[in-house]
Write a structure and sequence with these properties.
The chain has 275 residues and is α/β, with parallel strands linked by helices. The protein has one domain: Rossmann fold (3-Layer(aba) Sandwich), CATH 3.40.50. Helices cover 25% and strands 23% of the residues. The protein has a six-stranded mixed beta sheet with strand order 6-7-8-4-9-10, with helices on both faces. The radius of gyration is 18 Å and the shape is globular.
């Protein structure tokens, strides 16, 4: 069991500073079709469970989260819904260990027996893509693959690019990409680590029909592999059909929860009707 406690000082931030000085190399050749499996690998340890215990988060006088208690079992696919300002992004950033709660704690269940820190198996796609505009698509993914210590960097990078439909743009500078292309590359970056817990903050933003179809396919594969997914989204996202649970936040509190092992369809239908 691993605990992130709100009484700790500072914030846990994944740092990739200095990436702008990363040397540019030629984009790798596209792999054979069966290499594309590297883009979405099944984690051999399955999903990672997470529990929020009385989480409160304050930004000065603003209270973003108010005593949120929520237990998510390994392998659940949870749709996190609610209006703007409900606290969804803040909760996801705390889960990703990018932000400390003011009070309360986060507990990660079933860590690896070898003592691997949970954050090595957590990935988040947020509103910021975390991509480097001056690098190519392939260089961005190679950089992150090397930061995580992977040995099969070129194969893993090429497979990820092919999987998200950007194999033909591997050598293109990211600043030339559309919003949707950046989003697909950002999601591919997050999947490089074969995460046991994937945190998604409105991942469909900017995606066209092809991108949305790829997103749904990717999420279905992750669900089938047993990964835990916590996805903030709006009520009309087609990927919600994959959710095994729906949780609605309002004013920093859990307002409604279809429950662990429950049927989220009725709650999703209500939220869609309200949207």
């Amino acid at each position: 069991m691993s605990v992130l406690d709100g009484t700790m000082d500072g914030a846990l931030e994944q740092d990739s500073r200095g990436a702008s000085s990363h040397s540019r190399s030629a984009a790798g050749a596209r792999p054979a079709a069966n290499d594309s499996a590297h883009a979405i690998e099944a984690s051999p340890a399955g999903g990672l469970g997470i529990s929020f215990e009385k989480i409160e988060k304050r930004f000065g006088a603003l209270v973003a989260l108010r005593g949120v208690t929520l237990a998510i079992s390994a392998g659940e696919f949870v749709a996190l819904l609610g209006p703007n300002g409900a606290g969804k992004t803040t909760l996801l950033r705390i889960a990703a260990q990018l932000m400390m709660p003011t009070s309360g704690r986060v507990v990660f269940a079933s860590p690896d027996a070898n003592g691997e820190p949970p954050k090595l198996r957590i990935a988040m796609v947020g509103h910021s893509t975390l991509l480097y505009d001056q690098l190519t698509a392939a260089e961005n993914l190679r950089l992150f693959a090397k930061l995580y210590g992977f040995e099969d960097v070129d194969t893993r990078t090429a497979g990820a690019l092919d999987s998200c439909g950007l194999g033909s743009r591997a050598g293109s500078i990211v600043r030339t990409f559309s919003r949707g292309m950046r989003q697909r590359l950002s999601i591919a970056r997050a999947l490089l680590t074969a995460p046991r817990l994937l945190l998604l903050d409105e991942p469909a933003a900017g995606l066209d029909r092809q991108g949305l179809a790829w997103l749904s396919e990717m999420l279905a594969r992750l669900r089938g592999d047993g990964a835990t997914v916590l996805m903030s989204t709006h009520a009309r996202n087609e990927s919600l059909d994959l959710a095994t649970r729906a949780v609605s936040l309002a004013n920093g509190r859990v307002e409604r929860d279809s429950g662990m092992g429950g049927d989220p369809r009725s709650l999703l239908a209500e939220l869609r009707a309200e949207a």
